Amino acid sequence: MAWTLLLVAPLLEVVWAYSMKLSEGFTRVIPIDITLTTIAAGFGLLSVAMKAPPLGTAYTIWRGIGAIGAFLAGIAALGEPLTTTRALTAALIASCLILVRFTSVG
Q1: What is the pLDDT along the chain (106 residues), one digit of tens a residue?
Q2: Are 55 and 6 a contacting pair, CB within 8 Å?
Q3: 72, 55, 85: which is closest to 15 by C-alpha?
Q4: For position 54, what pLDDT does the model report?
Q5: Using CA atoms, how far apart are residues 57 and 103, in angstroms rounded to an integer?
Q6: Which of 55, 84, 93, 95 has its CA 20 to 30 A from that of 61?
Q7: Exposure of 92 by Cβ count < 10 A (0-12 exposed, 13-18 middle, 19+ buried)?
Q8: Distance from first CA to last CA of the chain, Å, rounded?
Q9: Which of 37, 98, 36, 35 is nearest to 64 (CA)?
Q10: Do the beta carbons of residue 90 and residue 68 sit within 8 Å?
Q11: DSSP secondary structure string, 25-70?
């Protein structure tokens, strides 16, 4: 169950990062509400998920999936550029997440 939560929690990070961008510097109410709600929910899920895997593994996976998800959301929803360098960087982050997961004790 912890690993499932560890895969869901960073999806909320993607939502809050995207809604924070839409809040235009915390000047728009609905995106602010979405941001704060998903931050709280994401941290809540992360705290439950951290019961099983080691701290370093859980946090690295949560942060990495969130970063890659925000990167993809920026490209898909905000028209941010997909360059070779950016794609390679995201692929390297993903490969590191896989290595962390499969070398983890928990």
Answers
A1: 888 999 899 999 999 999 999 999 999 999 999 999 999 999 999 999 998 888 888 888 899 999 999 999 999 999 999 999 999 999 999 999 989 888 876 5
A2: no
A3: 72
A4: 86
A5: 9
A6: 84
A7: exposed
A8: 12
A9: 98
A10: yes
A11: TTT-HHHHHHHHHHHHHHHHHHHHHTTSS-HHHHHHHHHHHHHHHH
Q: Token pair of 76, please?
A: 């898909």
**Which residue type, as a one-letter code, is found at position 22?**
L
Burial label for 53, CB within 10 Å (0-12, 13-18, 19+), is buried
CB 64 within 8 A of CB 93: yes
Q: Cβ atoms within 10 A of the Cβ of 61, count? A: 24
Amino acid found at 9: A
Going by C-alpha positions, the residue among 29, 64, 59, 33 that lies closest to residue 45 is: 59
| Gap between the Cα atoms of 73 and 82, Å rounded | 11
Cα–Cα distance for residue pair 55/61, rounded to 1 Å: 10
